[in-house]
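**Backbone shape codes:**
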Amino acid sequence: MLMVWIIIFSLLGSVVSVSGAALLLFFPEGTRRILTPCLVSYAAGTLLGSAFLGMIPHALEYSQPRSILSLVLAGIIIFFLLEKLVIWRHCHVEGCEVHNSAGPLILVGDAFHNFVDGAVITAAFLTSFPLGVATALAVIAHEIPQEIGDFVILLESGYSRHKAFFYNILSSITTLPGAVIAYFFLKSMEAVVPYILAFSAASFIYIATADLIPKLNQKIGIQASIRQFILLLAGVGTIILFHVQHG
């Protein structure tokens, strides 16, 4: 039964994200420019909440604090290096530097990241059902604004809307094999699950602090700042509420 839930939430983390992003593309550009930062703010909150209130605490229950925290630090450094290689880059704002990259490169990088997301979801579910659902929610929340950016890149690269949607679905569906492979691998090596959670927490922290929040800081208006702050807290609050109700 656990495998069924993993598959369901892995598909939600991929197909729902792409569909939501495609739907938002039909909004007027002005509306989209308002909604995307709102989604980014909420996503940053869910990522930070999942990492600090879910993944790291659960990892610390099964391993030495020094080992877990060292891996979180190492993970953040590794993701910095990956970003420099344009593998882990998540662009959530139209007009950023990554939009100068070719469409195929974005799709390959996105497929790699979604594959890892699937493994992250599985590791969380193997630890506890509430952590799995909360992690999947965080994945969905930050994937939607990312997919909007990916759509814009492909459209600017000459892809039609239908082809952009099709290729984004292909790159996002790698979440499922990532989840399934991780399930059979991690089930036989449960001792490594806490370290997978720690490494996953590092990716969530890095995406939130090195990518999402800096984009939000580009808007300095008081109303925008208040809206972003409230939505970030809402993202954290969603994770807290879910753990309180189902923990």
Observations:
- The chain has a mean pLDDT of 84.
- The first helix runs from residue 2 to 24.
- The CA atoms of residues 40 and 235 lie 10 Å apart.
